[in-house]
């Protein structure tokens, strides 16, 4: 269903460095800072809270990650619906306020229970930032420049992980949370004056229902598109949520010749992601195909997962972190994945999909973690499969399913987004 133009709606901007792109980029920067901060300070913060046994640190760390990701699942639905009903800007303001306040409170925690509930609340807040930002950028840039705009958002955004590492190492884990909360509150001031999407303003005048999450499940072709969008993002969170977050555990299992820390693993992975997001976004524009760019990066990711799990045994920490960097590059299709999700649906459901898709992909960690632990203890030939075998099985399945999902989705490069879902 096409939307008619309105003379008083904000025009599309031809500039890749408009206020909307800059604000969305900085918002995602702070979002990634907080999202990844726990993985960086996991061991130190749990040690200070009295959890010192290595197995307990792993178990409690996975529990807290699940709480954060569970919050993102809830927040993805909440902010997605709100983005289509009330507007993209309402999400950009509300989400950053919630996770900034939760971040500040995280710096004061004294118990695991307090830590867990605040990670849940922070997860709810973090869920809205990327989807709303990508939706707003996609709807305000000309279709020929959409890929470059979302590439900028992602490239700037994922570098927030590196700041999180530096701050966590220099100032300690509590101060790192305070800094994250302060950055978020400061960013609120920059959002004053940013205008709403013209497409959304037009959609408000139509009689079609907006933000109906359940409508994604009442139409078979629409549901198929939606599920395929979700599946594309799972490999990235297998890599970040398991291979990189549990880098110390994998380092010990692989017999790495020196100490491996989660903080450095995250730093190098996200450093690679910066270049990967730039490369995948640019490649999709050069090839004039989102799908072919995604397929290439999924193949590269599979190759690097194999290197991480089966080639690094007995290697040096330098070699291990080098592979983390290249592995990060290969999963640098995050913004491209969210862009594809946004481009697959009409204006009345676009924010709902663009917000829930990345958060359900992130939330897949909630399912991947117990599956990973269960498979690791599975007896094969009288011996446990172990974390290497478990990770190999989960990684292979998630990559194959994601490749199939990309290959069967309609190409969305250059698609006109000025329409409604009926």
Automatic annotation (TrEMBL):
Membrane-spanning ranges: 16-41, 61-82, 89-109, 115-136, 148-168, 174-194, 229-248, 260-281, 293-312, 318-342, 363-381, 387-406
CDD domains in UniProt: MFS_SV2_like
SUPFAM superfamilies per UniProt: MFS general substrate transporter (SSF103473)
Location of the protein in the cell: Membrane
GO molecular function, one term: carboxylic acid transmembrane transporter activity
InterPro entries: MFS, MFS_dom, MFS_trans_sf
Keyword terms: Membrane, Transmembrane, Transmembrane helix
Lineage top rank: taxon: Bacteria
Transmembrane among keywords: yes
A cellular-component GO term for this protein: plasma membrane
Keyword Transmembrane: yes
Pfam families reported for this sequence: MFS_1 (PF07690)
Gene3D superfamilies named in the record: MFS general substrate transporter like domains (1.20.1250.20)
Record's bilayer topology term: Multi-pass membrane protein
The Major facilitator superfamily (MFS) profile domain, residue ranges: 20-413
Protein name, as recorded: MFS transporter
Organism the protein comes from: Hymenobacter aquaticus
